[in-house]
């Protein structure tokens, strides 16, 4: 109730010192009470420059751009003038950010041929699939899965896994 009375005194035209003496409190308490009673100031900002229609157009256009382009190149790409802040705001609202991929070492054609040859040499050698489980206290035995010749690639399928389960090769899950 005292705060309401302090605010009423100040609104009636009494100064802060007189109000503080009347209610036996500090000058700062009166000022803070009065300032806290004021409604929050609203920031009157104008509407955003790019409307909702432009926002979608910018966002969809920015998704199609090359990530190596700088923001300046992006702003020059649109009809009219689009500021850098507008582009950044559109990307931020769409939860995108301009990213740059990690630079990978250039591979010469000879190195690519060597890699392909290495992969083809080792491809037929992988004939058995081994599975096992490890947990905190213990580990399971290693199990060689049986190939399923009826599968599309004559490899491992759910049928071959079920056969291993039926034969008791894989440990039961507790």
TrEMBL record:
InterPro entries: Transposase_Tc1-like. One of its GO terms (molecular function) is DNA binding. Residues 68-123 form the Transposase Tc1-like domain. One of its GO terms (biological process) is DNA integration. It holds the Pfam family HTH_Tnp_Tc3_2. This is Transposase. It comes from Colletotrichum incanum.
């Amino acid at each position: 109730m005292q705060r309401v009375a302090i605010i009423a005194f100040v609104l009636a035209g009494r100064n802060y010192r007189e109000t503080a003496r009347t209610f036996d409190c500090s000058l700062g308490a009166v000022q803070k009470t009065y300032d806290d009673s004021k409604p929050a100031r609203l920031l009157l900002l104008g509407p955003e420059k790019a409307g909702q229609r432009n926002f979608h157009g910018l966002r969809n256009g920015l998704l199609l751009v090359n990530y190596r382009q700088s923001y300046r190149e992006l702003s020059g790409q649109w009809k009219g003038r689009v500021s850098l802040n507008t582009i950044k705001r559109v990307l931020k609202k769409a939860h995108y950010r301009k990213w740059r991929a990690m630079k990978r070492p250039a591979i010469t054609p000879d190195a690519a041929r060597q890699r392909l040859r290495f992969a083809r040499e080792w491809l037929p050698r992988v004939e058995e699939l081994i599975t096992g489980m490890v947990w905190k206290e213990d580990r399971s035995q290693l199990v060689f899965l049986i190939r399923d010749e009826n599968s599309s690639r004559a490899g491992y399928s759910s049928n071959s896994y079920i056969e291993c389960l039926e034969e008791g090769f894989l440990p039961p899950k507790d």
